[in-house]
Amino acid sequence: MGQIHHFEYGWITPALSYALSVLGSGLGLVCAGRIRSARGAGQRAWWGVLAAWAIGGTGIWAMHFMAMLGFAVEGTRIRYDVPITAASTVIAMVAVGIGLAIVGTGRLNALRLLAGGLFTGVGVAAMHYTGMAAMRLDGTIDYDRTRVALSVLIALVAATVALWLSMTVRRGLAIGASALVMGMAVNGMHFTGMSALSVHLHERRGELAGTEVSGLLLPIVLAVIFGVVGLIYALLSPPAEDDHTGAAYLDAPRRAEQPTVASPEPAPAGRRGRSTLGQPGTPFPSRRGNPPR
């Protein structure tokens, strides 16, 4: 039995993984909040992709492999299969994207929320264990089924709560608090799944294929940087001209239906510019005292 260390470098890796999950969750909540307020299908798809990128790519996938930097097994090196690792990225983003599409279109109700949470939670768990399947070491990996089931349950609950928060939370302070809760849930799922792991080392060592986890650090950092810059730019940039044109097009029928009110014409002036007041047929206003001469 191989001795497992989940915190090889102390608390730096879990702290960074939690920070990534909070960052991705916060940005994802901001973007997801724009889905329901978007005018057209194109805008909803745009905000949905950004939210899936933030939550699935940064808050879940990058968090997972940042935490794996601190994972070590005595007596063996650890490498990761690159194609399977890339597949775990796609799984996380697609699962979150479909979950947001389920709850973000139409009227939000319990059935939509449960369906989206079920799909996203299963996708998050699949991402975690796909990422673990990419691991290569001189041994055999076994899992405790009870803890695996518990980690999947945590993923389902965390995904459902995350989707509910993404559709209901709007204010800055609430978004920050929700991101902190989502970060705890994602990390709780990860380390619960990791606690189910056990390794039986092989007596004979062989050559391991793949890349070390430190080789994934650069893609993780680049993905986070480009994701944060792109999302912040999207949030701070003014609406495109197409948005203004679309808004004007949508408002045009309303303006056409509104009745036009003619402006009152000025009273015609009498001879030599005098007012018509007092002319025959023009009533005098009621005044107290003697009538005019």
UniProtKB/TrEMBL annotation:
Residues 9-200 form the MHYT domain. This is MHYT domain-containing protein, NO-binding membrane sensor. The chain crosses the membrane at residues 15-33, 45-72, 84-103, 110-128, 148-166, 173-196, 216-236. Pfam families: MHYT. GO terms for cellular component: membrane. PROSITE patterns: MHYT. Residues 246-293 are annotated as: Disordered. Keywords: Membrane, Transmembrane, Transmembrane helix. InterPro entries: MHYT_dom (IPR005330). It comes from the Bacteria. It comes from Micromonospora rhizosphaerae.
